[in-house]
Amino acid sequence: MNIFRLAGDVTHLMSILVLLLKIHTIKSCAGVSLKTQELYALVFVTRYLDIFTAFVSVYNTTMKLIFLGSSFSIVWYMRRHRLVRRSYDREHDSFRHYFLVLPCLLLALVINEKFTFMEIMWAFSIYLEAVAILPQLVLLQRTKNIDNLTGQYVFLLGAYRALYILNWIYRYFTEPHYIHWITWISGLVQTLLYADFFYYYLHSWKNNVKLQLPG
């Protein structure tokens, strides 16, 4: 554990809390992509298959349970809650997210650290997480109506990944034989996808204007 990973984990948790605050308190999921939330649920399920078979630490297990529980809670709220689901923008959240799943699975079958079921699922989750934000970004571009909580949620998600890149750089120079190309390249791709959003988010914050993304 180092300061960059801890900051990344805290930022990731903050993004989830912001989203749950919006959904649970305001009873609205306007501007939130259900497609992205479903992809994240799939990411966590396939990554944490070892949750009850490979104990690392109490912290590690707790974080896994939080991410699994929160992702499925968000999906349930958006699909089943009688008030929240009314605010879901199905018309604009039309990105065909299932088209992302098969390429990521095929890539995991070809490029993995060890050709076992658990390792293939882990690689799949890494590849899928790199692109899971795409439906959310597309939805924000289409609606051009980004409230503060949704903007903060996406910004914190991107910041979490950027902090994890710093964590990997730190571990590369402090831990012998720490080389994980799959994680590094996927994390870089994911961070680059946020670059445009970061620019407009910081611009709106600096000028104290409402966040809007170009079409």
UniProtKB/TrEMBL annotation:
Keywords: Endoplasmic reticulum, ER-Golgi transport, Membrane, Protein transport, Receptor, Transmembrane, Transmembrane helix, Transport
Entry-linked InterPro entries: ER_ret_rcpt
Coarse class of the protein's main subcellular location: endoplasmic reticulum
Keyword RNA-binding: no
Listed name of the protein: ER lumen protein-retaining receptor
UniProt key word Oxidoreductase: no
GO molecular function terms listed in the Swiss-Prot or TrEMBL record: ER retention sequence binding
Lineage: Eukaryota, Viridiplantae, Streptophyta, Embryophyta, Tracheophyta
Similarity-based family: Belongs to the ERD2 family.
Topology class, membrane: Multi-pass membrane protein
One Pfam family here: ER_lumen_recept
GO CC aspect terms: endoplasmic reticulum membrane
Transmembrane domains' residue ranges: 52-77, 98-115, 121-141, 153-173, 179-202
Naturally occurring in which organism (per UniProt): Canna indica (Indian-shot)
Compartmental location: Endoplasmic reticulum membrane
UniProt GO BP: protein retention in ER lumen; protein transport; vesicle-mediated transport
